[in-house]
Amino acid sequence: MDDNISKYNGEIDISHVILDHGKNIKLLRGFEIVPDIDKRYMRNVVIMVSDEFVTSNLTDSIRLREELILFTSGDLQNKFLYPTTRKIKKETVHSLVLTLPSKKEVFIGRAEARTMVTIWNMAMQGYSFSRLSEFETSQSLETWTRALERNGYLEIDSMEY
Amino acid sequence: MLLISILIIPLIAYVIFVSIGNKKREHIEEEKKEIEEEVKPKEIEKSKEIMLYFQTDSIKISAYSSYAFRGFKASNFYKKIVANRLFIDEPFHTTFFQLLQIYDQTESWVKSFKTKEIKLKIRMKNGKFAEGTSFKVYSVSKIIFDFLGNILEYFDNRRYSKNDQKNVILTALIWKLDLVIELKYLCQKNLNNIDQRECLAKKLLIHYEKNHEVFQILHMLEVKHENLLFVFESYNKALKWQREYPYVQKEGEQYSAIRLEDLASINSKKLISLDAF
Q1: CA nearest to A30, candidates A120, A148, A112, A156
Q2: Looking at the complex, does the CB of residue A139 fall below 8 Å from at least one CB of chain B?
């Protein structure tokens, strides 16, 4: 164990990157707060769609990203996003459908999917993933609740863009 | 003869001279004394000692031990109401103590008005998902103790009879019993709020008669009687400055029940001196 871990006080600092404004899709990044050290170690990467967690660890989040890249080439083996067709102004369009835990459905178009992947790539630059893969199993509902409260995600006004 | 007269006259003269001199001297001494007396500080008269006898024996009342509470707030209110105001008559005393015990033990919460709900779905160590909803809550016991404090403050500034004060305090505490999840098992499910409060009041006020004022005040509270608006005000004031706590609600959460049999009974009172509170 190196010294930085022993200084870690158990708190997680969360910041988010908005992947899509209209559908309220956010990428939450949890960071360790280690006093006296400038480097930020990433603890978790989560995708949240309008107050609901869709993925909760790195593996799931990366899988969702890959499904976005595949877009209509994906099939029923997908886990989060399924390709589908719908009609907008009497015209058939291809899109991905994401079913939230509350059974609400979110449709994602091709351009939206590409934008989300681009922003994901930008948001992940420059961070160390070494701690992430090591500690992501230590999370629990309580640690997340505490971190969300600490960073003001449970307040009504804090999420105004 | 002449010789005698020659001898006597000077003698007489001498005597007169001496006596005048003496008088003068006496006069001067008197004046001196007077001056000295004036200059001397007058002695202060000593006051008579008055003995006062106080009743110093401490008064003992028959009460419950305040160590029965977990938190200091409950024992503080027990001291304020029972020891300071001497509301020691039954059945108020025991019922009030039981209600304090309930609010002291409860872990219930009320959802904050200023919170957002976030649905969590998290993959745990074993690969399975844990689901929950996180939001911010107020602690019921803290709300109630602040509420009680506000009511007492209201009584301090106004003239309410002892009896009215007791009834209002008791009713206010019973009125909010429906917030205590640990007591839900006492009543039927699917009752509306008003029926549930009535049911809980009947369960707790065993020693009160059915037409007692407490039940009337409870009814007045339900219809928001204008004479009792201060109770609503006190409650809203207590809610306004409450601290919010993060909370995660999981599916199938269970609460341990508070059993009424475990609460204090009249037999467990002891003689405690008022100084010991």
Answers
A1: A148
A2: yes
Q: What does residue B206 show for φ and ψ, rounded to 5 degrees?
A: -70, -35
Among residues B268, B263, B270, B141, which one has the least CA distance to residue B204? B263
Which residue type is seen at B218? Answer: L
Model pTM score: 0.74
Pairing of strands A25-32, A42-49: antiparallel
Residue A131 predicted with pLDDT over 50: yes
Q: What is the ipTM of this complex?
A: 0.82
Helix, strand, or coil (residue A20): strand
A58 chain-B contacts, CB cut-off 8 A: none
What confidence tier does A3 reach under pLDDT thresholds 50, 70, 90?
Answer: low
A57, A102, A145 member nearest B248 (Cβ) = A145
Query: How far off is chain B from A87, nearest CA to CA, in Å?
Result: 30
What does A50-108 look like in DSSP terms, one character per residue? TTEES--SHHHHHHHHHHHHHGGG--TT-SSEEEEEEEETTEEEEEEEEE-TTS-EEEE
Residue of B nearest to A44 (CA): B122
pLDDT digits (tens, 9 = 90+) for B121-144: 888 878 788 889 999 999 999 999
Using CA atoms, how far apart are residues A54 and A45, in angstroms rounded to an integer? 11
Which element (helix H / strand E) includes B230?
Answer: helix B229-240
* φ/ψ bin of B191: left (φ > 0), alpha (ψ from -120 to 50), beta (otherwise): beta
Output DSSP code: residue A155. B
A149 at B interface, C-beta within 8 A: yes
Alpha carbon distance A89, A86 (integer Å)? 10
Measured in whole angstroms, how far is the alpha carbon of residue B128 from the centre of its chain?
Answer: 53
- On whether the CB atoms of residues A58 and A43 are closer than 8 A, the answer is no
The strand pair at A25-32 and A12-20 is best described as antiparallel
Once rounded to an integer, what is the mean pLDDT over residues B165-174? Answer: 89
Q: What is the dihedral of CA A50, A51, A52, A57, to 10 degrees?
A: 100
pLDDT at residue number A5: 54
Could you tell me if B183 and B177 are in contact, meaning their C-beta atoms sit under 8 angstroms apart? yes
